[in-house]
Amino acid sequence: MSRFFPRALLVSALLFGAALHAHAVEPGEMMTDPKLEARARDVSQALRCVVCQNETIDESNAELAHDMRVLVRRRIAAGDTNEQVLSYMVGRYGDFVLLKPRFTTMTLLLWLGPMMILVLGGVALSRTVRGKRPVAAPLSPEEMAALAKLTAPGQDGTGASV
Amino acid sequence: MVLLVAIFGKRLLDVDRGADPRVIPSVLLNTPMPKFSLAALPGRKSSAATPFTDADLKGRVSLVNVFGSWCIACLEEHPTLVAIAKQGGVQIYGIDWRDTPERGAEWLNDHGDPYALIGQDPDSTTAIDLGVTGAPETFVVDGDGIIRYKQIGPITPEIWQSTLRPLIADLQKTASQNTDGQK
Questions:
Q1: A50, A69, A109: which to substitute to probe chain B, counting the most B Cβ within 10 Å?
Q2: Superfamily name with CATH number, domain A26-122
Q3: Residue B172: CATH number of its domain
Q4: pLDDT, tens digit, for every residue of A57-66?
Q5: Regarding beta strands B91-97 and B62-67, do their DSSP bridges make them parallel or antiparallel, or are they unpaired?
């Protein structure tokens, strides 16, 4: 990696990326009503840029992301709720367009998978721990007799005076 | 756990065998073409005073191709589209996406114009309605205006022969059987 991508370049690329990360909304796109604009920002932050895939449309400089932001604002201006705008996009791009997937039969495993693994892991762990606990075998009659002799009061057995 | 490994494993193998991880299955498959009305690209043989709309697609199987003069992969695809148009048998419609009419027209002058009608979509209104993520994308729409297939990326001669042509022939056959049945 470092051979093809000198460290200084990498650092500056990361810094540049961090600077850009804030958001890509241009002044001309913004809605005049700050409340509506805030809603548009919320919705945009939940929507994936379908060109770049790992960015929200709010952060992306892709042209399609720009057009999607404008569309989000157009829908909000037309009176859509945030949920309606999201559904509008899901109707066209599928659940994929949401950065936080919805709870559906398709995403059941995604949402419950970690929980299942945790529970299964817990069960497995408790079984292993219990299985390994040493179980003492009952004393044989000879051992019982020896024990009685050692603990009997008034005698000079080795263990009694300890 | 075994289930998870199986699911992830299958996906990894698919990707390994050449499935493109960026391809997202379209939710619009087997649903009606969204309503649209796009101003015709001026200066073409196909140019009309009326806009290109979803109603133009009714009655026969068609291809709706999303392209742009800025799109490199479209250039790669274009000769195939021109050849398909020459063969006849299927109508090809174009959506000139995120382009200016001048650049779009010039590009078609340079590379050929396979389209029966061309609409302009400069601000992605229809592209977003179609769930387009990039160009080129091509929709196979049957005579009832239902989307039957979405080709993401360029149509190559191989894809045309192995996938699209048989599919279109199938759709045309079912359509003619249906009209026969009604008679």
A1: A50
A2: Cytochrome C biogenesis protein (1.10.8.640)
A3: 3.40.30.10
A4: 999 999 999 9
A5: parallel
